[in-house]
């Protein structure tokens, strides 16, 4: 009882000195907790950013990519429901987007053009960087509209709203151009329609050429997902796209290493700052120690009281700082990534324990007070 | 007198000064290191992003529609337009020539392999090819620069040799015919004799359409196709700056007559390494081409670079804040600890201004000394950080030296101002009594 009253008394008196220590501890804890939150959140955010690179897993028939697709030859295909069934069985949480594709070479205005049938609502997520003039097709059943690539539009003199007639063998289909795609790649030379429309044009109901999957996560997560897809679909070829996977892994590693090493520097600096302040505070207390000692307090008890004081300071400052830091990282997430970084619960105890340890380490010089002679101190030397 | 007081203070109590100076050195070292890294990280990361490969695609302008599926062009060889290989050296003459890290021409053609009797695609390209630049130098480039993720088991074909590299998919399907060390005969038509012999030197795995094709030197592909000196597509890998509003306007001004850049805007756009301005410069040296940003790569790169850049500036600010805190806290403690000294000075008739002046002068001297040492320690830290993160040490920025010194002086002064103002209210008698 007496012990805690003394601690309380000490905290109340001497406010100026304590203010410096508290400011140091709180801001130190805030910076540390913000950086810890940030480091845990940043990988998550960046892997999502990398998804604009498009699909990272491609499923295709085992015989390889279609060797020759022209009017007369039937490309190697796979049944649509085989692939979809398996994909529904696997956990959907990691899949950012997935779409089946059927490519045929049809003729428009007597010019051969590649027509891709797909789920356009998913294709939009797979290729988030497409620039579209006009409007997107959101329904998988909208057979009357299609999107045309930039080069196709230029070559066939098409504008948004124009009709486009596609011929494949003896069949033909008509759609109106809903939008013109600027993709900066092969898609600029293609026409996009719903999967159903292309299947009926090519008379290949239920058949697809490839399926593209965009999986969110680090390289091992993607590789793991690809492996599970491969075991579930032994008759097909499941291959991670190397360009995306390798670059993403390397870049993420570098960016994280950079942030972690800078955070570590700050961490050391903050810890040193708190340590210094606490050490100064402890030295200030020499007079109190002298008084207590002359009143007959044992050294272990006196040091105990100070350590308790310092511990309480560390814990309170750590808690307050951790909360401020969580708010900071929340704001940083909004500012940098547009979505908030939600605080992790494990950051709070880590920050508080860290601050207590640092504060106690700062109070270590107090142990030297064991050989203090009360008279000398009270005399003011 | 003032200088003597100052000198005495340093001579009398070096221990305390060492503490403050240590805080200054560490704080300023961290500030220097983080600032150096933050200033350099954009360039470094942009270079790292080139591991994604090419970000610009050059195609003939007056082309027929490529019949391209999964990265392979299925058009017959006598259809469509071609580009001239001889012009490629001009790419290294544009304004941003040093930002062109590599380029690779491609010529796809359908062909038959007489060993298997099957149709396949031949992809003519460069792996490491020396391109003569108009200024007389040579530039070595090829798929090694624009497609760094391509992995070859065995070795690459020699430039211009009758050799080839076979896709892993093909090799898996027909291991008897497509094995390293064997020769295959390829021809454009199934009927035309035995075809050209090519020695297989490696098996390539790209994770893309090339896995089912045969890669061979561009010059050999040109001879087989009957189009010497020509190619269809050029992939360019360029170091760029993330697009901003000006980059977007500059890009749109080229196609949209309604958007006009003012001369200063145009100069700024032209002289910034935006992907749109580099594309524009490539088109001026390669007339008759259509240069397009590979949006998927360029935009992902731009966005992540901008985000990481902002993030690092925030972290740098945090580091500066922490450094300021450390220095300010030490300064404040110093003043508080020396109340007795202040009391004596005031009792002897020193004015508040003199006391404050002495203390501030002391702090500034310490700050400059500590900041200078801290700067060099920080340069070392930045070198180490750059080395461990990017593989090459970050080069020191001398411009940071005065900045860090000024920062140190400012922070030390700010840190001692509050306690000094309180010291002005000290009553000497109370302090000297030891309360």
End-to-end gap of chain B = 30 Å
What is the CA-based Rg of chain A, rounded?
A: 33 Å
Q: What fraction, in percent, of the residue positions of chain A are helical?
A: 40-55%
Q: Total helix count of chain A? A: 12
Q: Give the class of chain A from helix and strand content and strand pairing.
A: alpha+beta
Q: How many separate helices of chain B?
A: 13
Largest sheet: number of strands, sense, barrel closure of chain B: 6 strands, mixed, barrel
Strand content of chain A is 15-25%
Radius of gyration of chain B: 33 Å
Give the oligomeric state. heterodimer
Shape of chain B: elongated
Order of helices and strands of chain B: HHEEEEEEEEHEEHEEEHEEHHHEHHHHH
Largest protein-protein interface: A-B, 85 and 85 residues
Provide the β-strand percentage band of chain B.
Answer: 15-25%
Shape of chain A: rod-shaped
SSE layout and pairing:
The complex is a heterodimer of chains A (381) and B (435).
Chain A: H1 2-12, H2 15-50, E1 57-61, E2 78-79, H3 80-89, E3 95-108, E4 111-118, H4 120-126, E5 131-134, E6 145-149, H5 150-156, E7 163-168, E8 171-182, E9 190-194, H6 195-202, E10 207-208, E11 210-215, H7 219-232, E12 236-240, H8 242-284, H9 286-294, H10 299-337, H11 347-362, H12 374-379
Parallel strand pairs in A: 4-9, 6-8
Antiparallel strand pairs in A: 1-11, 1-12, 2-10, 3-4, 3-11, 5-8, 6-9, 7-8
Helix pairs in contact in A: 1-10, 2-8, 2-10, 2-11, 8-11, 10-11
Chain B: H1 2-12, H2 14-49, E1 56-60, E2 68-69, E3 72-73, E4 83-84, E5 100-113, E6 119-125, E7 129-132, E8 138-141, H3 143-146, E9 151-154, E10 163-167, H4 168-173, E11 183-187, E12 196-205, E13 213-217, H5 218-225, E14 230-231, E15 233-238, H6 245-255, H7 263-270, H8 275-285, E16 289-293, H9 295-337, H10 339-347, H11 352-390, H12 400-424, H13 428-432
Parallel strand pairs in B: 6-13, 10-12
Antiparallel strand pairs in B: 1-15, 1-16, 2-3, 4-14, 5-6, 5-11, 5-15, 7-8, 9-12, 10-13, 11-12
């Amino acid at each position: 009882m007496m012990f805690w009253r003394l601690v309380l008394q000490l905290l109340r008196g001497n406010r100026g000195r304590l203010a410096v220590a508290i400011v140091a501890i709180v801001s130190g804890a805030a910076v540390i907790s913000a950086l810890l939150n940030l480091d845990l959140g940043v990988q998550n955010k960046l892997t999502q950013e990398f998804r604009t690179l498009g699909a990272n897993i491609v499923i295709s028939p085992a015989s390889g990519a279609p060797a020759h697709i022209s009017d007369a030859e039937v490309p190697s295909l796979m049944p649509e429901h085989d692939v979809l069934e398996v994909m529904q069985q696997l956990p959907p949480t990691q899949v950012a987007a997935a779409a089946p594709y059927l490519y045929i070479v049809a003729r428009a205005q007597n010019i051969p053009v590649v027509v891709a049938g797909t789920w356009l609502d998913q294709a939009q997520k797979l290729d988030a960087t497409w620039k579209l003039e006009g409007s997107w097709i959101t329904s998988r059943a909208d057979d009357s509209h299609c999107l045309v690539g930039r080069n196709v539009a230029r070559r066939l003199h098409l504008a948004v709203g124009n009709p486009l007639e596609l011929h494949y063998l003896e069949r033909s289909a008509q759609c109106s151009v809903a939008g013109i795609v600027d993709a900066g790649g092969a898609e600029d030379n293609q026409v996009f329609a719903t999967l159903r429309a292309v299947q009926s044009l090519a008379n290949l109901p239920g058949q697809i050429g490839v399926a593209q999957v965009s999986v969110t996560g680090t390289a091992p997560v993607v590789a793991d997902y690809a492996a599970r897809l491969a075991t579930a679909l032994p008759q097909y070829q499941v291959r991670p796209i190397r360009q995306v996977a390798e670059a993403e892994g390397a870049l993420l590693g570098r960016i994280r290493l950079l942030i972690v090493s800078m955070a570590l520097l700050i961490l050391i600096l903050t810890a040193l700052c708190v340590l210094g302040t606490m050490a100064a505070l402890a030295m200030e207390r020499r007079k109190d120690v002298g008084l207590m000692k002359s009143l007959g307090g044992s050294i272990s008890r006196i040091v105990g009281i100070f350590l308790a004081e310092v511990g309480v300071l560390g814990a309170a400052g750590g808690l307050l700082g951790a909360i401020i830091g969580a708010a900071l990282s929340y704001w940083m997430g909004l500012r940098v990534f547009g979505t908030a970084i939600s605080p992790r619960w494990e950051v709070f105890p880590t920050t508080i324990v860290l601050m207590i340890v640092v504060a106690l380490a700062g109070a270590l010089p107090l142990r030297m007070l064991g050989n203090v002679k009360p008279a000398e101190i009270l005399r003011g030397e | 007198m003032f200088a003597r007081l100052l000198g005495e203070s340093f001579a009398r109590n070096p221990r305390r000064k060492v503490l403050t100076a240590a805080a200054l050195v560490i704080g300023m070292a961290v500030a220097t290191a983080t600032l150096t890294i933050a200033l350099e990280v954009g360039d470094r990361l942009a270079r790292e992003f080139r591991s994604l490969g090419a970000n610009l695609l050059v195609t003939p302008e007056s082309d027929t529609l490529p019949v391209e599926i999964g990265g392979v062009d299925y058009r017959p060889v006598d259809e469509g337009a071609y580009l001239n290989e001889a012009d490629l050296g001009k790419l290294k003459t544009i304004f941003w020539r040093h930002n062109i890290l590599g380029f690779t021409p491609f010529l796809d053609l359908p062909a038959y392999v007489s060993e298997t009797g099957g149709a396949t695609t031949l992809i003519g390209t460069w792996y490491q090819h020396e391109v003569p630049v108009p200024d007389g130098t040579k530039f070595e480039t090829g798929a090694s620069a624009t497609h760094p993720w391509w992995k070859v088991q065995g070795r690459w074909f020699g430039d211009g040799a009758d050799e080839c590299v076979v896709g892993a998919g093909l090799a898996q399907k027909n291991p008897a015919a497509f094995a390293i060390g064997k020769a295959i005969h390829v021809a454009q038509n199934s009927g035309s004799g035995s075809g050209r012999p090519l020695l297989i030197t490696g098996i390539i795995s790209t994770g893309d359409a090339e896995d089912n094709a045969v890669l061979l030197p561009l010059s050999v592909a040109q001879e087989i196709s009957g189009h010497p000196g020509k190619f269809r597509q050029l992939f360019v890998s360029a170091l760029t700056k993330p697009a901003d509003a000006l980059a977007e306007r500059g890009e749109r001004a080229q196609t949209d007559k309604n958007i006009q850049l003012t001369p200063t805007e145009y100069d700024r756009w032209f002289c910034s390494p935006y992907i749109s301005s580099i594309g524009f410069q490539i088109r001026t040296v390669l007339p008759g081409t259509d240069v397009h940003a590979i949006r998927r790569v360029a935009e992902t790169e731009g966005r992540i670079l901008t985000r990481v850049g902002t993030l690092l500036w925030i972290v740098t600010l945090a580091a500066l804040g922490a450094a300021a805190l450390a220095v300010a806290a030490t300064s404040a403690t110093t003043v508080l600890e020396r109340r007795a000294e202040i009391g004596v000075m005031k009792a002897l008739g020193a004015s508040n201004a003199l006391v404050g002046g002495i203390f501030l002068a002391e702090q500034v001297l310490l700050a400059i000394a500590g900041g200078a040492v801290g700067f060099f320690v920080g340069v070392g830290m930045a070198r180490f950080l750059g080395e461990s993160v990017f593989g090459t040490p970050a080069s020191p920025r001398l411009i940071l030296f005065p900045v860090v010194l000024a920062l140190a002086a400012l922070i030390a002064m700010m840190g001692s101002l509050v306690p000094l103002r309180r010291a002005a209210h000290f009553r000497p008698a109370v302090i000297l009594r030891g309360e």
